[in-house]
TrEMBL record:
Annotated ranges, domain GST N-terminal: 10-89
Pfam families: GST_C_2 (PF13410), GST_N_2 (PF13409)
Domain of life assignment: Bacteria
Protein name per UniProt: Glutathione S-transferase family protein
InterPro entries: Glutathione-S-Trfase_C_sf, Glutathione_S-Trfase_N, Thioredoxin-like_sf
Length: 204
């Protein structure tokens, strides 16, 4: 199915929360492919929200298709959008495919660890915070950033691939929730993220 069938997209709905970095990743990917997908806000904490019927895990994002199917999580949605578009812009073919998918997985891992740190402070009393557990999550972020400092995603002419999008979203989330403290320690990443912001595709 190719992008020259825009009628199918009309019935699609992306259920996400506006604060979700994984939802933002999907929104940026859709914008890269010029897919105008309607966004509907979901409340992951509301047991009456239909999100829990659409995704038994009660997590966002979820892509609802016109035929009633629900796709989740973000990496599955990205794969679907890439296949629907048909140009392999988000996930290239050939030897670069798995490199880009690894970059996406690593950036998603940064988000997972960062979100777990946020949940710890948001949902657990201070006296119950697990110092060792929090340090374990910080270590994941630190090692992943160190990797990207040495192995930046390579830009492609056709627009950003999902490795670039995922990393840019992860770094922006660290700016938002952790005051951008990563920037002074990772100058190459810092410069890369600043350059990405000037390209325009990171804006919504």
């Amino acid at each position: 199915m190719l992008i020259n069938d825009p009628s199918a997209v009309t019935g699609w709905v992306l259920r996400t929360s506006l604060a979700s970095p994984f939802g933002r990743k999907v929104r940026l990917a859709a914008a890269t492919l010029e897919l105008d997908i309607r966004v509907e806000v979901a409340d992951t904490t509301d047991p009456d929200d239909s999100l829990r019927q659409q995704n038994p895990l009660g997590k966002v994002p979820v892509l609802l298709l016109g035929d009633g199917r629900a796709l989740f999580d973000s990496s599955v949605i990205i794969d679907f959008l890439n296949e629907y578009d048909g140009r392999s812009r988000l996930i290239p073919i050939g030897e670069k495919r798995h490199l880009v998918l690894v970059q996406q997985a690593l950036a998603d891992g940064i988000l997972d660890a960062a979100l777990l740190q946020m949940y710890e402070s948001r949902f657990r009393p201070v006296h119950l915070h697990g110092g060792q557990w929090l340090e374990h999550q910080r270590g994941k972020v630190q090692r992943a950033l160190s990797y990207f400092e040495q192995h930046l995603p390579q830009q492609q002419q056709a627009g950003p691939h999902i490795g670039e999008i995922s990393l840019a979203v992860a770094l922006s989330y660290l700016d938002l929730r952790f005051e951008g403290r990563w920037r002074s320690q990772f100058p190459t990443l810092n410069q890369w993220h600043k350059e990405v912001q000037t390209r325009g595709w990171l804006q919504e």
